[in-house]
């Protein structure tokens, strides 16, 4: 068995690096163990971009802002979903750091200050470990960092509330390295309407929002359509001269009525504009049965906490919720992520899909086999099992997104 596996791994390495003939291997006929070993090798030799991770805000919540010690990103942890060790194990090379602005800042003020703080926290990590980490402002910089063995930390803003009511803040943030902006989050804002908000404040993209999209095009900043309503999306599609991206959304046909995921009509329009849908990993985004059960568990927990005079932060509550959820919530497997990839591919083709985990942003709802950044090879193994080629996998991992990014840059200044 060991010798057979070594032979297969050798073939797999050749497949990943040099020999087109090796692609004739029927990977679907291999055992899961054999396929996973090849997938690990592919992950290490292919640039993997992830469209969205909420590490900066998790660090901020833990008190690691610009004061005191730098967050220990270098040590393997059992907390959160990513650190340097797990990222390297999983072969992820460019996880976009989300500069997340909660919707509450739209009311209290201070959104730009928070965005600046989170950006500086990312910069601080890079400056602390320059032999391991690097910022990245273009596909070319990610490719150069990959060759040097550096983990790239590109950045995107989540929630246009960060620019407040000042269009000039877009160029301010672009100059700080921000390369995409998610237009809304949990509430309608000055730019447009959120899929999580029933208010329909603007009935789509606001007049200010139209100017924001145009300015993002001019700068070469990617427009992220995750979180917005369908009406807002189609307004964006009409206004934007550049391709548009959903950096962390999944397919709505698996979760009917969940507007936060993208509909087939939206997927087709994204493809028409030469954009990309980056599939997110949270269980409630992937599976309706999981979403329903998870909502029921949360409703039960609210009542249970009230009856027991506890909060979610209490250890007793955490233990109870973990046990209760394990009994009530169905298991979602990593294969469900590939089901969503399959759907996009079958609908519009291989050129319009990528990965956007939302790690550190979806709590304990992640699928089996995809709990943290060390587990990207499990996605690749499932893709191999379903007959995806080397070229297909490279496109999903980074080439599709790089194409879009370069196209957005080409529109800049027009």
What does this molecule look like?
With 414 residues, the protein is an alpha/beta fold. Helices cover 49% and strands 10% of the residues. The chain has helices at 2-17, 32-45, 55-61, 84-90, 105-108, 111-128, 139-148, 168-175, 207-219, 230-239, 264-272, 283-286, 288-308, 315-328, 335-348, 376-385, 390-411; strands at residues 49-53, 94-100, 133-135, 151-153, 155-158, 178-182, 222-224, 244-246, 276-279, 353-355. The chain has an 8-stranded parallel sheet with strand order 1-2-5-6-7-8-9-10, sandwiched between helices. It has a two-stranded parallel ribbon with strand order 3-4. It is globular, with a radius of gyration of 21 Å.
Q: Any chance you could write out the topology, listing elements then pairs?
A:
Layout: H1 2-17, H2 32-45, E1 49-53, H3 55-61, H4 84-90, E2 94-100, H5 105-108, H6 111-128, E3 133-135, H7 139-148, E4 151-153, E5 155-158, H8 168-175, E6 178-182, H9 207-219, E7 222-224, H10 230-239, E8 244-246, H11 264-272, E9 276-279, H12 283-286, H13 288-308, H14 315-328, H15 335-348, E10 353-355, H16 376-385, H17 390-411
Adjacency order of strands in the biggest sheet:
1-2-5-6-7-8-9-10
Helix/strand structural class: alpha/beta
Rg calc: 21 Å
- Helix coverage percent of residues? 40-55%
| Strand/helix succession | HHEHHEHHEHEEHEHEHEHEHHHHEHH
Global shape:
globular
* Uncertain runs: 1-9, 13-22
In round numbers, the mean pLDDT is: 93
Cα distance spanning the termini = 59 Å
Number of helices: 17
- DSSP strand count: 10
The largest sheet, given as strand count, sense and whether it forms a barrel, is: 8 strands, parallel
Beta content comes to 5-15%
